[in-house]
Design goal:
This protein has about 700 residues and is α/β, with parallel strands linked by helices. Helix content is about 50%, strand content about 10%. An 8-stranded mixed sheet has the order 14-13-12-11-8-15-16-17, sandwiched between helices. It is globular.
Length: about 700
Amino acid sequence: PEEKGGFGTDAVVHLGMHGTVEWLPGQPLGNDRQSWSDELLGGTPNIYVYAANNPSESILAKRRGYGTLVSYDVPPYGRAGLYLELANLKDLVNEYRSGEDSRSDLRDAIWGSCDRAGMTADLPFSFSVENSKGELDLSSVKVEDFDAWVADLSNYLVTLEERLFSCGLHTLGGQPTDKELLSYLNAYFDNKLTVDELEDVIALSHEEQKSTELQPRNSFLSWLQSFADNFMGDNSDISGTQTSDDEPLKEEALKIVELLKRNTEEMDGVLTALNGGYVKPCPGGDLLRDGTSVLPTGRNIHALDPYRMPSEGAWTRGQRAAEEILRQHQESNNGAFPETIAVTLWGLDTIKTRGEAIAIVLALVGARPVKEGTGRTVNFELVPLEELGRPRVDVLASLSGIFRDSFANIVDLLDDMFERASVAEESPDMNYIKKHCLDLEATGTERPAARLFSNPPGDYGSMVNEVVGNGDWDETESLGEIWRGRNTYAYGRSEGGGGVRSGTARPEVLDKLLSTTERVVQEIDSVEYGLTDIQEYYSNTGALKKAAENRKQVDPNSGAKKKVAVSIIEAFGGSDEKVQVKDVEDVLRMEYRSKFLNPKWRDAMLEQGSGGAYEVSQRMTAMVGWAATAEVDNFVFDQAAERYALDEEVAKRLQKNNPEAFKNVVRRLLEANGRGMWSTDDETIEKLRQLYSDADDLVEQVASSFG
């Protein structure tokens, strides 16, 4: 209000997630006059246009930012396909597998293509490809060994070719084209319906739309026809032919098309909110996992009941994931169980998976949820060791600020479980929680059973992404220490009476857990936000990995500290049939190949103008972040430089769309080389330096033109 020093704003319209105001210091639950968001917004209506697939952070936008949410749809999906050298490699593999006479001649060609594409990092040989002189010699490799490797390579190329990604950006209130509708349906049904069948559904939706537009004039006749069809028992499907097994799928496809066409209601939702009207509610989520319940967009999205987690499906998947994590760890560690595993608990994947990460924590510890008659979870019961059949694994639970604030009931239940496990009448050799607590008690450490760590009360984020973004860091170890310094606060029922304001700094306990952590677990819940797409993954999961490695002893054989593995669970579809657990390096390679290095993804972003260039720039910064906290292969930087900086046409388009974004792309490549993350020739570096100088001049010119 003007009387309070403002300039008379009637309302704020915030476009896109996420903003600043809801993350500023203050009360996590129930703003007071000391909360920055309350002071900045006051009673000004905040109409917040928010991504439909992010119900987690949207809770904070409502709770702390007073947001009236209006959801918008995710961009259309695309299949990665194969391109450039990968397409050539596929042809060579197909020729090798289909031929007999000339197969030996293709060995060198296949290896050369793999080498140029960096594919030997994705699928390393399990046999020697060098002779006694250290020279490449594939002729000595057994036919059956090479055939098996080529079969694995073929399967990998198919997986890469079919991998989904978000294609471009979404236009608020824009109705999808037929091509975009087809991409949504193709991703959703995943070959359960053919392209021809999907195109027929889209065509039918247009016919029905025209019919609806004529409905007022023929309403009585339509009603009469409908009554007659129902009375006589009409057995035709939506295309007018005899009912088939695919009819339910086609009907679902038609429903999805009709709902997607209502994207125009996004703008209606904004105008309704500005007019002081009622914006209809809708659950948040994404189409692939949650189905049609998240459509149409233009709605005030909400999450789920936190007292019913984990759901039955999440519990099943979580147990399977934990079993696979332990199996893989034993396989690579001579059968030994890990003493401690760090599991990230984020609000986003918790809401969308209905608590799979929580289930993973329970399964690793050896516990199970107990629910009352209403379906609410009231306890996490320890499974007897005789039934468990293995040691209880200790867990460092790394909570995001949103998880800490939104799921206080789960935090309290987990804390109670760890307390009981720490004093269970079991041998420390079979209960690593108890073992580590006894070690801490011996040093006089208070609350040795604290296992749920996060940022200080009312604060959010590890700040690692801020440091990487500014380039204000020296050694990679420092990024781990920044994460550690921001996550020393323990939470739970035993911390000052429970609740989100009850955090207590317990750095000694955190250091002990980090020193014994052998693996980090992270779930990815959607196609839209992968490891390489946003800064939060490397700044939390990657930095946690680095913090744990900082506390490892130096191996006398290698002279280096032991590496901490990272297990990634891609929980896109929600099916409990198969839970895939992959190493972080494998997921990074797959994501970079299918998206960032893919000309199809790049060209879609270039079509989006300034926003698309910004997305490219952000992913380049994230690449440096991952190279600092994990490992990024040299070929990724090689091809990123080729695709975005050294391609003259692409470079011009990026500069035209967003000069600052292009400058950052080149800057990150130079930074990666300077920090030893990327090895390339002097000529390439000199070209990049010249590009950076020119980009810097252009940015200065643009800035000076605005005074």
